[in-house]
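Write out this protein's structure.
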Amino acid sequence: MTTQTGSATAVPTLGLSPQALQSGPTEPVWDQESKDSARRAAAAVMELFARPGLSATAWANELAAVMTPKAITDFYGTDPARIPAHHVTGHPSLTVDPTNGFSVLATVATDAGSYRIQLLRTMAGAPWKANRITAEFGH
């Protein structure tokens, strides 16, 4: 709620401390924790994605927890039985743009070849979410 005090207008704080209002959200940077959390997120996404034996409903519901709203919409109606990967076979590698701490491309090896996952986050410390998952055919 905004209130008037004399000629000055108070700014609504929404319960935030004055320090939080002054510093604002933190711009993400590529430190070791950011890289480690992106690798963990990529591995978790592929572990959930590469399960062709699940029902479409169970697969979509479980995968939705690690995806952006756009990705959830893109994969809606996917039959997991058509996904050739059954399990992850290697550790994720990252392609990092050092000027963009909000996005990263991860490559994850599976028993059916490599997949690339575009991961996004909204701010430093926020969870990585898969925005796109694509197979790398021919690799």
